[in-house]
Structures are given as structure tokens and as C-alpha cells.
Amino acid sequence: MTGQERLMLAEQMFWDARRARAEAIQREHQEWSEEQVEQELRKLMLVEAMRKGT
Fold first, then answer.
1. How far is CA 50 from CA 17, 46, 47, in A?
2. Residue 36 CB partners (closer than 8 Å, separation 6+)
């Protein structure tokens, strides 16, 4: 697999994981708007990135 292919695969995996996480948040908070789900998703991803030191 070339470097470009690995990068494309990693990007697809990122977006798939992000979409799954958003769906889980929406299931947990069905009363939330899409904007609220997106805000929570961003917050959680930022916290995880900070914990990992990225």
C-alpha cells in the first residue's frame, strides 16, 4: 500500500469513527439538535486529543 493509500484509508477511518460517535451521542440525547450533537462531538474529540498529547 502506498503512502497516499494509507493516508486515504486513515482519513476514511477518521470520518467513519466520527460519524459513529455522532450517532451514539444522538441516540443518547435524542432531544438535542444537530448543532448540540456536533458541539458535544467536538468537545469529546478535543478532550481525547489533549489526553493523547496531539
1. 18, 6, 5
2. 29
DSSP 8-state assignment for residue 33: -
Handedness of CA 48, 13, 11, 37 (dihedral sign): negative
Rounded Cα distance between 41 and 25, Å, is 8
* 5 neighbors 12 (Cβ within 8 angstroms): no
Q: Look up the domain containing 31 and give its range.
A: 3-52
Domain count, the chain: 1
What's the whole-model pTM score?
Answer: 0.81
- 7-53, pLDDT tens digit by residue? 999 999 999 999 999 999 999 999 999 999 999 999 999 999 899 88
